[in-house]
Amino acid sequence: MKISQIETFILRMPLGAETFLSSQATFPERNSFLVRVTTSDGIVGWGEGGQWGPPGPVAACVNDVLAPIILGQDFVEPPRLWERLYAHTRDFGQKGTYIEAMSALDIAGWDIWGQRLGQPVHALLGGAFRDRIRAYATGFYYRQDSKNQNDRLDAIAAEAKRHLASGFDTVKMKVGLLSVEEDAERVAAVRAGIGPDIKLLVDANHAYGTATAIRLGRELEKYGVGWFEEPVVPEDRVGYRRVRDALTVPIAGGECEFTRYGFRDLFLGECVDIAQPDISACGGLSEWLKIQTLASAFGVLTIPHVWGSGIALATALQALAAMPPSPHTIYPVPIQNEPVVEYDRTPNALRDDLLVESIEFKEGYLSVPSGPGLGVTVNDEVLAKYKSAR
Ligand code: CA
User: Fold this and answer.
1) 219 and 331 share one domain
2) pLDDT (tens digit, 9 = 90+) per residue, 336-355?
3) Do 91 and 157 share a domain, yes or no?
4) Segments forming the whole domain that contains residue 280
5) DSSP 8-state secondary structure symbol assigned to residue 213
6) Span from the CA of 69 to the centroid of ligand 1 (angstroms)
7) Whole-number mean pLDDT of the chain?
8) Are residues 14 and 104 in the same domain?
9) pTM tops 0.90
10) Which among 141, 269, 316, 380 is least buried, having the fewest CB atoms inside 10 angstroms?
11) What string of DSSP letters covers 195-208?
Protein backbone atom coordinates (compact mmCIF):
# COMPACT_ATOMS: atom_id res chain seq x y z
CA MET A 1 0.00 0.00 0.00
CA LYS A 2 1.54 3.25 -1.15
CA ILE A 3 0.73 6.88 -0.39
CA SER A 4 -0.65 8.04 -3.71
CA GLN A 5 -1.99 11.53 -2.95
CA ILE A 6 -1.58 14.22 -0.27
CA GLU A 7 -3.96 17.18 -0.56
CA THR A 8 -4.06 20.23 1.68
CA PHE A 9 -7.14 22.31 2.49
CA ILE A 10 -7.38 25.74 4.06
CA LEU A 11 -10.89 26.33 5.34
CA ARG A 12 -12.23 29.70 6.42
CA MET A 13 -15.56 30.69 7.91
CA PRO A 14 -16.07 34.47 8.35
CA LEU A 15 -17.77 35.37 11.63
CA GLY A 16 -19.09 38.81 10.72
CA ALA A 17 -21.16 40.17 13.60
CA GLU A 18 -20.20 37.13 15.71
CA THR A 19 -16.55 38.30 15.83
CA PHE A 20 -15.15 37.76 19.32
CA LEU A 21 -11.95 38.39 21.26
CA SER A 22 -9.64 36.65 23.68
CA SER A 23 -6.92 38.49 25.58
CA GLN A 24 -4.59 37.88 22.62
CA ALA A 25 -6.54 38.27 19.41
CA THR A 26 -9.69 39.30 17.60
CA PHE A 27 -11.36 36.43 15.76
CA PRO A 28 -13.12 37.72 12.63
CA GLU A 29 -13.13 34.18 11.21
CA ARG A 30 -12.62 30.54 12.14
CA ASN A 31 -10.11 28.64 10.06
CA SER A 32 -8.72 25.13 9.89
CA PHE A 33 -5.93 23.42 8.01
CA LEU A 34 -6.77 19.89 6.90
CA VAL A 35 -4.84 17.26 5.02
CA ARG A 36 -6.35 14.41 3.02
CA VAL A 37 -4.08 11.44 2.37
CA THR A 38 -5.13 8.79 -0.16
CA THR A 39 -3.49 5.37 -0.50
CA SER A 40 -3.08 3.12 -3.53
CA ASP A 41 -5.77 0.87 -1.97
CA GLY A 42 -8.23 3.76 -1.99
CA ILE A 43 -8.18 4.44 1.77
CA VAL A 44 -8.68 8.12 2.61
CA GLY A 45 -7.24 9.53 5.86
CA TRP A 46 -7.91 12.99 7.31
CA GLY A 47 -5.80 15.05 9.66
CA GLU A 48 -5.86 18.58 11.09
CA GLY A 49 -2.82 20.73 11.79
CA GLY A 50 -2.56 23.83 13.95
CA GLN A 51 -5.08 25.32 16.33
CA TRP A 52 -5.81 28.97 15.57
CA GLY A 53 -2.71 30.40 13.91
CA PRO A 54 -2.46 31.16 10.18
CA PRO A 55 -3.08 27.95 8.18
CA GLY A 56 -1.05 29.01 5.11
CA PRO A 57 2.43 28.36 6.56
CA VAL A 58 1.31 24.94 7.86
CA ALA A 59 0.10 24.05 4.35
CA ALA A 60 3.47 25.17 2.94
CA CYS A 61 5.35 22.91 5.39
CA VAL A 62 3.28 19.95 4.20
CA ASN A 63 3.39 20.75 0.50
CA ASP A 64 6.99 21.94 0.18
CA VAL A 65 8.84 19.79 2.72
CA LEU A 66 6.99 16.85 4.29
CA ALA A 67 4.71 15.53 1.52
CA PRO A 68 7.60 15.00 -0.95
CA ILE A 69 9.24 12.66 1.61
CA ILE A 70 6.14 10.47 1.86
CA LEU A 71 4.48 10.65 -1.54
CA GLY A 72 4.76 7.48 -3.63
CA GLN A 73 6.34 5.57 -0.71
CA ASP A 74 4.92 2.55 1.14
CA PHE A 75 2.56 3.32 4.04
CA VAL A 76 4.54 3.50 7.28
CA GLU A 77 2.90 3.21 10.72
CA PRO A 78 2.49 6.80 12.04
CA PRO A 79 4.76 6.49 15.13
CA ARG A 80 7.57 5.26 12.87
CA LEU A 81 6.92 7.91 10.25
CA TRP A 82 6.94 10.58 13.00
CA GLU A 83 10.54 9.77 13.91
CA ARG A 84 11.57 10.01 10.29
CA LEU A 85 9.82 13.34 9.66
CA TYR A 86 11.02 14.87 12.94
CA ALA A 87 14.61 13.85 12.20
CA HIS A 88 14.25 15.54 8.82
CA THR A 89 13.00 18.86 10.26
CA ARG A 90 14.64 18.89 13.72
CA ASP A 91 17.34 21.38 12.78
CA PHE A 92 14.81 24.05 11.79
CA GLY A 93 11.41 22.99 13.12
CA GLN A 94 11.39 21.76 16.73
CA LYS A 95 8.30 23.79 17.65
CA GLY A 96 5.47 25.59 15.93
CA THR A 97 4.47 25.35 12.32
CA TYR A 98 6.47 22.28 11.29
CA ILE A 99 5.19 20.28 14.24
CA GLU A 100 1.64 21.38 13.37
CA ALA A 101 2.20 20.14 9.81
CA MET A 102 3.55 16.85 11.16
CA SER A 103 0.51 16.61 13.45
CA ALA A 104 -1.87 16.75 10.47
CA LEU A 105 0.01 14.03 8.57
CA ASP A 106 0.33 11.90 11.71
CA ILE A 107 -3.41 12.06 12.45
CA ALA A 108 -4.22 11.19 8.81
CA GLY A 109 -1.79 8.27 9.17
CA TRP A 110 -3.66 6.95 12.24
CA ASP A 111 -6.95 7.33 10.35
CA ILE A 112 -5.53 5.23 7.49
CA TRP A 113 -3.90 2.72 9.84
CA GLY A 114 -7.18 2.14 11.67
CA GLN A 115 -9.17 1.74 8.46
CA ARG A 116 -6.58 -0.69 7.12
CA LEU A 117 -6.86 -2.84 10.27
CA GLY A 118 -10.63 -2.33 10.57
CA GLN A 119 -10.20 -0.81 14.04
CA PRO A 120 -11.04 2.56 15.58
CA VAL A 121 -8.03 4.68 16.50
CA HIS A 122 -8.76 4.26 20.22
CA ALA A 123 -8.20 0.50 19.85
CA LEU A 124 -4.80 1.14 18.26
CA LEU A 125 -3.94 3.58 21.07
CA GLY A 126 -4.33 0.79 23.62
CA GLY A 127 -8.07 0.26 23.99
CA ALA A 128 -11.04 2.23 25.28
CA PHE A 129 -11.57 3.06 28.96
CA ARG A 130 -14.82 4.84 28.06
CA ASP A 131 -17.13 5.30 25.05
CA ARG A 132 -18.23 8.84 25.85
CA ILE A 133 -16.39 11.80 27.33
CA ARG A 134 -17.78 14.43 29.68
CA ALA A 135 -17.60 17.73 27.74
CA TYR A 136 -17.01 21.21 29.10
CA ALA A 137 -18.28 24.34 27.37
CA THR A 138 -15.67 26.89 26.34
CA GLY A 139 -17.25 30.31 25.99
CA PHE A 140 -17.63 33.68 27.71
CA TYR A 141 -15.37 35.42 25.19
CA TYR A 142 -15.18 39.17 24.89
CA ARG A 143 -17.33 40.98 22.35
CA GLN A 144 -16.28 44.08 20.45
CA ASP A 145 -19.72 45.60 20.73
CA SER A 146 -20.03 45.31 24.51
CA LYS A 147 -17.99 48.20 25.84
CA ASN A 148 -20.56 48.85 28.52
CA GLN A 149 -19.92 46.79 31.64
CA ASN A 150 -23.64 46.27 32.32
CA ASP A 151 -24.18 44.91 28.78
CA ARG A 152 -21.26 42.57 29.33
CA LEU A 153 -22.66 41.24 32.57
CA ASP A 154 -26.10 40.78 30.97
CA ALA A 155 -24.53 38.83 28.12
CA ILE A 156 -22.69 36.65 30.64
CA ALA A 157 -25.93 35.80 32.46
CA ALA A 158 -27.64 34.89 29.17
CA GLU A 159 -24.73 32.71 28.06
CA ALA A 160 -24.61 30.91 31.43
CA LYS A 161 -28.28 30.06 31.00
CA ARG A 162 -27.63 28.60 27.52
CA HIS A 163 -24.82 26.30 28.73
CA LEU A 164 -26.90 25.03 31.64
CA ALA A 165 -29.86 24.34 29.33
CA SER A 166 -27.53 22.34 27.04
CA GLY A 167 -26.62 20.01 29.90
CA PHE A 168 -23.08 21.15 30.71
CA ASP A 169 -21.82 20.76 34.27
CA THR A 170 -18.53 22.57 33.56
CA VAL A 171 -17.89 25.85 31.74
CA LYS A 172 -14.74 27.78 30.87
CA MET A 173 -14.50 31.55 30.62
CA LYS A 174 -11.91 34.01 29.33
CA VAL A 175 -10.03 36.57 31.38
CA GLY A 176 -7.01 38.74 30.70
CA LEU A 177 -8.29 41.42 28.35
CA LEU A 178 -9.49 43.84 31.03
CA SER A 179 -8.10 44.97 34.38
CA VAL A 180 -7.92 42.39 37.19
CA GLU A 181 -10.78 44.22 38.93
CA GLU A 182 -13.06 44.18 35.87
CA ASP A 183 -12.25 40.56 35.05
CA ALA A 184 -12.85 39.55 38.69
CA GLU A 185 -16.28 41.13 38.30
CA ARG A 186 -16.88 39.01 35.18
CA VAL A 187 -15.81 35.87 37.07
CA ALA A 188 -18.29 36.75 39.81
CA ALA A 189 -21.01 37.26 37.15
CA VAL A 190 -20.34 33.85 35.59
CA ARG A 191 -20.38 32.18 39.01
CA ALA A 192 -23.67 33.92 39.81
CA GLY A 193 -25.08 32.86 36.42
CA ILE A 194 -24.16 29.18 36.69
CA GLY A 195 -24.82 28.78 40.41
CA PRO A 196 -22.64 27.06 43.02
CA ASP A 197 -22.78 23.49 41.65
CA ILE A 198 -21.41 23.96 38.13
CA LYS A 199 -17.64 23.75 37.75
CA LEU A 200 -15.97 26.94 36.53
CA LEU A 201 -12.64 27.01 34.67
CA VAL A 202 -10.79 30.24 33.84
CA ASP A 203 -8.43 30.87 30.89
CA ALA A 204 -6.13 33.90 30.65
CA ASN A 205 -4.41 32.96 27.36
CA HIS A 206 -1.10 33.96 29.00
CA ALA A 207 -2.16 37.57 29.57
CA TYR A 208 -0.34 38.19 32.84
CA GLY A 209 3.01 38.62 34.46
CA THR A 210 3.54 36.56 37.60
CA ALA A 211 2.43 39.16 40.14
CA THR A 212 -0.76 40.01 38.24
CA ALA A 213 -1.55 36.33 37.71
CA ILE A 214 -1.28 35.72 41.44
CA ARG A 215 -3.48 38.76 42.16
CA LEU A 216 -6.20 37.50 39.77
CA GLY A 217 -5.68 33.96 41.10
CA ARG A 218 -6.54 35.12 44.65
CA GLU A 219 -9.89 36.29 43.23
CA LEU A 220 -10.40 32.95 41.49
CA GLU A 221 -9.88 31.15 44.81
CA LYS A 222 -12.98 32.92 46.14
CA TYR A 223 -15.15 31.45 43.37
CA GLY A 224 -14.08 27.81 43.59
CA VAL A 225 -12.40 27.81 40.19
CA GLY A 226 -11.44 24.34 38.93
CA TRP A 227 -8.34 25.44 37.03
CA PHE A 228 -6.50 28.60 36.04
CA GLU A 229 -5.32 28.15 32.44
CA GLU A 230 -2.25 29.78 30.89
CA PRO A 231 -1.75 32.40 33.62
CA VAL A 232 1.64 33.51 32.20
CA VAL A 233 3.44 33.24 28.86
CA PRO A 234 4.37 29.67 27.88
CA GLU A 235 8.11 30.43 27.84
CA ASP A 236 8.07 31.60 31.49
CA ARG A 237 8.46 28.30 33.33
CA VAL A 238 9.66 29.97 36.54
CA GLY A 239 6.61 32.25 36.44
CA TYR A 240 4.35 29.21 36.07
CA ARG A 241 5.89 27.58 39.13
CA ARG A 242 5.67 30.78 41.19
CA VAL A 243 1.97 31.14 40.32
CA ARG A 244 1.36 27.47 41.06
CA ASP A 245 3.18 27.70 44.41
CA ALA A 246 1.22 30.80 45.42
CA LEU A 247 -2.30 29.56 44.65
CA THR A 248 -4.59 26.72 45.67
CA VAL A 249 -6.32 26.79 42.25
CA PRO A 250 -4.86 24.05 39.98
CA ILE A 251 -2.77 25.45 37.12
CA ALA A 252 -3.35 24.27 33.54
CA GLY A 253 -1.32 24.92 30.40
CA GLY A 254 0.37 23.46 27.37
CA GLU A 255 -1.70 24.37 24.29
CA CYS A 256 1.31 26.40 23.07
CA GLU A 257 3.78 23.60 23.83
CA PHE A 258 5.10 21.04 21.39
CA THR A 259 6.37 17.45 21.45
CA ARG A 260 7.53 15.26 24.33
CA TYR A 261 10.56 17.52 24.71
CA GLY A 262 8.54 20.67 25.36
CA PHE A 263 6.27 18.89 27.83
CA ARG A 264 9.26 17.29 29.58
CA ASP A 265 10.47 20.82 30.37
CA LEU A 266 6.99 21.88 31.51
CA PHE A 267 6.87 18.90 33.91
CA LEU A 268 10.46 19.24 35.15
CA GLY A 269 9.71 22.91 35.83
CA GLU A 270 6.74 21.81 37.99
CA CYS A 271 4.64 24.28 36.00
CA VAL A 272 1.23 22.64 35.73
CA ASP A 273 -1.29 20.38 37.47
CA ILE A 274 -3.09 19.78 34.16
CA ALA A 275 -1.29 19.42 30.81
CA GLN A 276 -3.18 20.60 27.74
CA PRO A 277 -1.49 19.44 24.56
CA ASP A 278 -3.42 20.26 21.40
CA ILE A 279 -3.20 17.02 19.41
CA SER A 280 -3.33 18.92 16.11
CA ALA A 281 -0.38 21.05 17.22
CA CYS A 282 1.80 19.08 19.67
CA GLY A 283 2.79 16.41 17.14
CA GLY A 284 -0.37 14.39 16.48
CA LEU A 285 -1.57 11.19 18.11
CA SER A 286 1.88 9.54 18.08
CA GLU A 287 3.31 12.35 20.19
CA TRP A 288 0.13 12.66 22.30
CA LEU A 289 0.75 9.10 23.55
CA LYS A 290 4.25 9.99 24.67
CA ILE A 291 3.22 13.29 26.28
CA GLN A 292 0.32 11.70 28.12
CA THR A 293 2.53 8.88 29.38
CA LEU A 294 5.16 11.36 30.54
CA ALA A 295 2.45 13.42 32.28
CA SER A 296 1.13 10.40 34.17
CA ALA A 297 4.64 9.63 35.43
CA PHE A 298 4.90 13.20 36.74
CA GLY A 299 1.48 13.03 38.43
CA VAL A 300 -0.03 15.48 35.94
CA LEU A 301 -3.50 14.95 34.46
CA THR A 302 -3.73 15.41 30.69
CA ILE A 303 -6.78 17.18 29.26
CA PRO A 304 -6.19 18.18 25.64
CA HIS A 305 -6.84 21.58 24.16
CA VAL A 306 -9.45 21.26 21.38
CA TRP A 307 -10.43 24.24 19.28
CA GLY A 308 -10.49 23.06 15.69
CA SER A 309 -12.80 21.45 13.15
CA GLY A 310 -14.77 18.23 13.49
CA ILE A 311 -11.58 16.34 12.57
CA ALA A 312 -9.72 17.77 15.59
CA LEU A 313 -12.70 16.98 17.83
CA ALA A 314 -12.93 13.36 16.58
CA THR A 315 -9.17 13.00 17.07
CA ALA A 316 -9.41 14.21 20.68
CA LEU A 317 -12.32 11.86 21.42
CA GLN A 318 -10.34 8.90 20.08
CA ALA A 319 -7.34 9.87 22.21
CA LEU A 320 -9.39 10.48 25.36
CA ALA A 321 -11.24 7.17 25.03
CA ALA A 322 -7.90 5.38 25.44
CA MET A 323 -6.49 7.50 28.27
CA PRO A 324 -6.29 5.75 31.65
CA PRO A 325 -7.71 7.59 34.69
CA SER A 326 -4.77 9.32 36.35
CA PRO A 327 -4.30 8.39 39.14
CA HIS A 328 -6.58 5.34 39.39
CA THR A 329 -9.65 5.30 41.64
CA ILE A 330 -12.66 3.00 41.50
CA TYR A 331 -14.99 5.87 40.60
CA PRO A 332 -12.95 8.45 38.68
CA VAL A 333 -14.06 12.08 38.98
CA PRO A 334 -13.94 14.43 35.96
CA ILE A 335 -10.98 16.87 36.11
CA GLN A 336 -9.78 15.26 39.37
CA ASN A 337 -8.50 12.07 37.72
CA GLU A 338 -10.83 11.50 34.77
CA PRO A 339 -10.36 13.40 31.50
CA VAL A 340 -12.93 15.77 30.05
CA VAL A 341 -13.09 17.12 26.50
CA GLU A 342 -13.05 20.78 25.56
CA TYR A 343 -16.17 21.66 23.53
CA ASP A 344 -15.89 25.17 22.17
CA ARG A 345 -19.31 26.81 21.98
CA THR A 346 -18.47 29.79 19.77
CA PRO A 347 -19.96 29.63 16.25
CA ASN A 348 -17.93 27.31 13.99
CA ALA A 349 -19.47 25.45 11.05
CA LEU A 350 -16.12 23.69 10.51
CA ARG A 351 -16.70 21.97 13.84
CA ASP A 352 -20.46 21.46 13.60
CA ASP A 353 -21.17 20.83 9.89
CA LEU A 354 -18.01 19.41 8.30
CA LEU A 355 -18.52 15.75 9.16
CA VAL A 356 -20.94 13.37 7.48
CA GLU A 357 -21.40 11.59 10.85
CA SER A 358 -22.28 14.19 13.45
CA ILE A 359 -20.68 13.56 16.83
CA GLU A 360 -23.43 12.98 19.36
CA PHE A 361 -23.67 15.39 22.30
CA LYS A 362 -26.09 14.09 24.92
CA GLU A 363 -26.56 14.76 28.62
CA GLY A 364 -23.27 16.66 28.76
CA TYR A 365 -21.22 13.93 27.05
CA LEU A 366 -19.70 13.61 23.57
CA SER A 367 -19.75 10.09 22.10
CA VAL A 368 -16.52 8.54 20.87
CA PRO A 369 -16.84 7.62 17.15
CA SER A 370 -16.76 3.82 16.90
CA GLY A 371 -16.03 3.24 13.18
CA PRO A 372 -12.60 2.31 11.82
CA GLY A 373 -9.86 4.98 11.91
CA LEU A 374 -11.09 8.31 13.26
CA GLY A 375 -14.62 7.01 12.63
CA VAL A 376 -15.67 10.13 10.74
CA THR A 377 -15.68 11.32 7.12
CA VAL A 378 -15.73 14.78 5.61
CA ASN A 379 -18.76 16.15 3.76
CA ASP A 380 -17.44 17.21 0.32
CA GLU A 381 -20.06 19.95 -0.12
CA VAL A 382 -19.21 21.58 3.21
CA LEU A 383 -15.51 21.22 2.39
CA ALA A 384 -16.03 23.01 -0.94
CA LYS A 385 -18.14 25.71 0.70
CA TYR A 386 -15.42 26.82 3.12
CA LYS A 387 -12.35 26.00 1.02
CA SER A 388 -10.09 29.00 0.57
CA ALA A 389 -7.36 29.41 -2.06
CA ARG A 390 -4.86 30.54 0.59
CA1 CA B 1 -6.86 28.09 26.26
Assistant:
1) yes
2) 999 999 999 999 999 999 99
3) no
4) 123-367
5) H
6) 33
7) 96
8) yes
9) yes
10) 380
11) -SSSEEEEE-SS--
Judgement on whether residues 178 and 259 belong to the same structural domain of the protein: yes
Q: Average the pLDDT over 164-190 and give the result.
A: 97
* Segment 219-262, tens digit of pLDDT: 999 999 999 999 999 999 999 999 999 999 999 999 999 999 99
Tell me: do 153 and 114 sit in the same domain: no
Among 119, 154, 186, residue at a domain's last position: 119
Quote the ligand 1 centre to 323 CA distance (angstroms). Answer: 21
* One domain, residues 133 and 183: yes
| Residue 16 CA: distances (Å) to CA of 88, 144, 307 | 41, 11, 19
Bridge partners, residue 344, by sequence:
138
pLDDT for residue 145: 66
Assign 302 to helix, strand or coil.
strand
pLDDT given at position 164 = 97
Alpha-carbon span 162 to 156, nearest angstrom: 10
Confirm if 307 and 342 have CB atoms less than 8 A apart: yes
Active site residues: 305
CA of 82 to the centre of ligand 1 (A): 26
- Domain tally, the chain: 2
Q: Looking at the structure, do residues 317 and 230 belong to the same domain, yes or no? A: yes
Question: pLDDT class for 299, splitting at 50, 70, 90?
Answer: very high
